[in-house]
Design a protein that fits this description.
By secondary structure, this protein is an alpha/beta fold. It contains nine helices and 15 strands. It is globular and about 80 Å long. The protein starts with a strand and ends in a 6-residue tail after the last strand. The mean pLDDT is about 90.
Length: about 290
């Protein structure tokens, strides 16, 4: 059984467990404070702080893990991203007081104090920008640092920017964008472990690919099939099949984006389509 390090709390934990459950790897049982659980009799999950997961994987305490790209970058440990999971999206940004005259990183004076929970990434970013600043490590409430006089500038995570604005701050630049990643060590795996982790990646990837897609079936007039192909091209074109005793009607099956389903149905109806059925997809392999 391979060991996976997963986030122990918060939205990242919830989204991770939902993804694994959809892939057939739901925890066998887990109390709120349980430290481990079996996932589908295939893996052992250990639940730890998201910021500790890069260390657990890099040091071999876990064979793979799920955590944010921001935390992976801050750890600077030798890890390989096996799969971008897409959720937990946020940006790490440089922000200053709303009333500040700073418009870009180049306007920040050398020696400026920058408060952040990501001192390594922050130092590297400003070095790359040619700015000599003083990093002020802070474990929480970063947005209050300028108001309290702790620092002039902050580097912090944001999703919408609303929290920054409510604290009298505005974005200056983006340091990096982050999503949840499935990560593994760069080496030290045998062939069997490699195959198992590859199977895990494929299972998770198939679930992620299926999200936002729908399977559509409809009966359409045969003389409209060329138009149907334009409306629902599918992955490799729609599947067309004969309907027993269907006369001039043919059955069309295709995978379509969920965001376009309402428009697709309307367009098929306009062509004389009927018996339209749309269903969710659990997994979708490339």
């Amino acid at each position: 059984m391979l060991r996976l390090a997963l986030p122990n709390k918060g939205r990242l934990s919830e989204d991770t467990l939902t993804l694994f459950a959809d892939a057939g790897l739901a925890p066998d049982s887990r109390a709120d404070r349980a430290l481990s659980a079996t996932l589908g009799n295939e893996f052992e999950a250990i639940f730890v702080r998201a910021q500790d997961i890069p260390e657990f994987v890099a040091d071999g305490a876990a064979d793979a893990g799920v955590t944010g790209w921001d935390l992976i970058c801050e750890s600077a440990r030798p890890l390989t991203t096996s799969l971008d999971l897409g959720f937990g999206a946020c940006r790490m940004v440089v922000a200053a007081r709303t009333e500040s005259t700073i418009q870009s990183v180049s306007d920040i004076e050398d020696g400026a104090r920058v408060a952040t929970s990501f001192p390594r990434v922050t130092a590297e970013y400003f070095k790359g920008a040619g700015r000599s600043i003083e990093v002020v490590p802070i474990s929480g409430a970063t947005e209050s640092a300028p108001r309290l006089g702790i620092a002039d500038i902050i580097v912090d995570l944001t999703s919408t920017g609303s929290s920054l604005r409510s604290n009298g701050l505005r974005e200056i630049s983006t340091v990096l964008t982050s999503t949840a990643r499935l990560v593994v060590r760069e080496n030290s795996r045998d062939a069997e472990q490699e195959r198992t982790l590859c199977d895990l990646r494929l299972a998770l990837e198939s679930v992620l690919r299926a999200r936002g897609m729908r399977y559509l079936m409809a009966n359409v007039p045969r003389d409209q099939l060329e138009r149907v192909k334009e409306i629902i091209p599918g992955l490799n074109g729609p599947t067309i099949s004969t309907i027993m005793n269907g006369g001039n009607m043919a059955a069309v099956h295709a995978v379509v984006p969920a965001a376009r389903v309402y428009r697709t149905i309307s367009e098929l109806k306009a062509l004389g389509g009927e018996g339209i059925l749309v269903t969710r997809i659990e997994r979708l392999m490339a």
